[in-house]
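Narrative of accomplishments. A recurring question from our advisory board has been how the design workflow behaves on a single, concrete structure rather than in aggregate. To address it, we present the structure tokens for one chain from the evaluation set, followed by the sequence designed for it. No filtering or post-editing was applied between the two.
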């Protein structure tokens, strides 16, 4: 069976602004099967945005659980992320889910994984997926050498990643949290 590869998700925190974006490509083996997938989801009336890489079905299951954790923890993003990571790692069924999440709000930018990781980057830049490392490198260079907004950095860095990574395309969606 062909391996499904897809996406690049990038979040950038710059001053009081946070942006998160992703491309739209989904690949099955060496074939692009969809070019305009939406891999960003709004939670808590747009105050929290999540991006996902990996299995979409697994990501949706995790997003539902994360949304419930947010509600149970009074919209505390860090606490909800920790609770989700603990459940994800310890539950026999959840442990098999293959996805990564990036969660962004005014208060926090986090990457959550099934191995129990909840990572908040020092520089406020998080990238996941096939082109995640390319997008992070581009975003860091743009942040150090330009006066672009967080949203513009995300968009430009994702386009740079799309020029390098065959599993990332130029169908970019960016959301801003202020």
């Amino acid at each position: 069976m062909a391996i499904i590869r897809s996406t690049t998700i990038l979040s950038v925190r710059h001053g009081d602004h946070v942006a998160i974006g992703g491309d739209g490509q989904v690949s099955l083996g060496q074939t692009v099967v969809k070019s305009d997938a939406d891999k960003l989801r709004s939670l808590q009336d747009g105050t929290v945005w999540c991006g996902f890489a990996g299995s979409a079905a697994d990501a949706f299951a995790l997003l539902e659980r994360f949304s419930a954790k947010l509600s149970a923890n009074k919209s505390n993003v860090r606490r909800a992320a920790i609770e989700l990571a603990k459940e994800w790692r310890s539950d026999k069924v959840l442990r098999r889910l293959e996805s990564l999440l990036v969660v962004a709000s005014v208060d926090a930018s986090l990457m959550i994984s099934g191995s129990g990781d909840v990572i908040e980057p020092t520089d406020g830049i998080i990238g996941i997926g096939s082109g995640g490392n390319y997008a992070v490198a581009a975003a860091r260079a743009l942040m150090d050498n330009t006066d672009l907004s967080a949203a513009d950095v995300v968009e430009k860095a994702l386009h740079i990643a799309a020029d390098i990574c065959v599993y990332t395309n130029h169908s970019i969606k960016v959301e801003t949290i202020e």
